[in-house]
């Protein structure tokens, strides 16, 4: 089996591309390091990663962030490791697909931010309503996204997966080991 058919392996770098429902490119992350791939999920890290917005604006991520994508859940999770603790940014989005070019998903505007003290905020509800009407998300997509918000909040409340400190510590430590090995 070729490497392309198998997908990226630990320590490889991939590009992540988010799109809007109409197919337009929304945002690109260059050089996300892959920490783990499985049949259904991909875990990576962004650390001083170049991000390009749809308007051409470019910026670099400030702190290390563990990224979690799943092929069955309509969200992805970014755990930002900061001096004051871990903050989370969760995108309500289609399950990802991975091809030779990039890991890709459709961003559905709604976001959940979790602060180091555990406070949760649902963001961009107005943007979601606007784009839902403009691009005709439809009842099925709306139902799926709202159900996945509930799943996401349950994960947050129960410190499941990426919302566990042990998970963040494990993958950040693995990232540091891979960095040391490559230098």
From TrEMBL:
Keyword line: Hydrolase, Magnesium, Metal-binding
InterPro entries (UniProt xref): DUF402, FomD-like_sf, Ntdp-like, SA1684
The DUF402 domain, residue ranges: 22-160
Membrane spanning stretches: none
Top-level taxon of origin: Bacteria
UniProt xrefs under Pfam families: DUF402
NCBIfam families, per database record: PRK13662.1 (NF010183)
Protein's name in the database: UPF0374 protein
